[in-house]
Amino acid sequence: MSLEFQPTEIITHIFLCCPDIPSVLALSATCHRFRRIYNSSQKLPILERAADAQFGPLEDIIQLVTHNASQPAHIVRTVPFSFALVRQIAHVGLVAEQWCDIYPFKKWKHNYEDRRLLTGHERLKFRRALYRLWLYSHAFHNLRFPRTARMQLPVLRERAELLHNWSTEELAEMADVHSVLRDVVHSNLCPSNGTIARKFRKRHSEYGHEHQLLFNIHLNYPPPPLPPFQPSSPHHNPTIPTHHFSYTRSNARYSKFWPTPFHEPGAEGWGDDIGHYYVVEDMMKLDPEQILWLKENAPLKQQVESYVKQQGEWFENNGETWGQTLQWVLLERGEDQGELEERVQDGEWGVTTWED
After folding, report:
1. Which residues are 181's β-sheet partners?
2. E strands, the chain, where?
C-alpha cells in the first residue's frame, strides 16, 4: 500500500521519528494530506521531538534561552513548548552544531592522525556541555559581576551552585569543550605575536627574513574611517567597524597576513607570554556564539577590539571565572582539578573517550 494511504496514526508516528526539523518540513511538503496531518494538533509535539533529536538535549537549551537575572541560574526551569521556543532552540542549536564540526580539528590538533568525525552520542555530549558553558557565561560574565566581586564568598557560592547541578564526569565534558573554545580564542581570535610571526613565515616564505614584523606599534598616519557593520545574528547586535580592505571568506585569512602600506601583519598580534595570557582570560568571557561570530566575521584585531569595547568597562581586566569556580566545586567534593584535566587529556573523561 502506498505511504499516502496509510492511517493517520502511522503517518504521525513517521513524523515523530524524523531525525531533524528539515526532514519534518520536507515530509510535510510531500502532499496535501501530509500537510494537514503536520498542521494538526500534533504539530508542536512533532517539532519538539525533531528539535530534541537534532539539537538536544532540549532541557539544557531551555535553561539557557529562558535564563534571566530575576532567577538564580541553578534553578531548573520548565516552560511550555511553543513556536517561539522552537526558533530559539534552532538558533542556539545551529551554533552548537558548528562547534561540533570545529571540535575534531582542535581536539586532535597535533595528533591529527587520530582525527575523525564525532559519533551521534559524542555530538550529544558536546552540545550538552556547550549549552551548560553558555548558560554559565550568560549568568556570570556580565556587568553584574565586575572584577571586584569575583572573590566575594556569596558570589563564588552562587557560581558554584550552578556547577553542583552536574556530576564530576559531566563537568569533565564541559572542561573538554572549554579547552576547545579557549584554543579558538588563543589561536584564531586573539593570536599571540609568536603565532602571527609563525603563520606569516608559513604563508609568505618568499619574503625570507627581509620583512621584519612590527608588533605593538602606533602608525604615524591616521587610520581610514571605519563604517559601521551590523552582524547577522539577532542574538548579539553590536556595531562593529569594518576595515578599509574588502574582505571575503576566501581572502580574509590571506589578507590578514599580507603587508601593505596600510596594513602591518605584526599589528595583528596580541602580545607575548603573560600579556597574551591575560588577553585570552578576558576574551573567554565571550559566549560560544560571540566567539564563533568574531572568528568568522572579524579577521582583524581592530575589529575585535572595537567589539570588546562595546561590552563596557566591566569587560576589561576581568578574566573569566569558570576555571576558578570549577576548582572550588571539585575541592568541595574532595576531588582535584589537575586529576580531572589529566583524565580528559588521557581520554578517560570528556566528549570523546577511549570507551567510545
Report:
1. none
2. none
263 strand-pairing partners: 260
pLDDT in tens, the chain (356 residues): 677 778 999 999 999 999 999 999 999 999 999 999 999 999 999 999 999 999 989 999 999 999 998 889 999 999 999 999 999 999 999 999 999 999 999 999 988 888 999 999 999 999 999 999 999 999 999 999 998 888 899 999 999 999 999 999 999 999 999 999 999 999 999 998 888 888 777 776 665 555 666 665 443 333 444 444 344 453 444 433 333 333 334 444 446 777 777 777 777 888 888 889 999 999 999 999 999 999 999 888 888 999 998 888 899 889 999 999 999 999 999 999 999 999 999 999 999 988 76
pTM of the model: 0.87
* Phi-psi group of 326: left, alpha or beta (phi > 0 → left; psi -120 to 50 → alpha; rest → beta): alpha
The residue with cell 589578507 is: 255
Residues 6+ apart with CB under 8 A from 197: 213, 266, 269
User: How far is CA 265 from each of CA 58, 211, 232, 302, rounded to the nearest angstrom?
Assistant: 43, 10, 27, 12
Task: Pull the grid cell for residue 265.
Answer: 601583519
Asked if residue 351 lies in contact with residue 129, where contact means CB atoms within 8 angstroms, the answer is yes
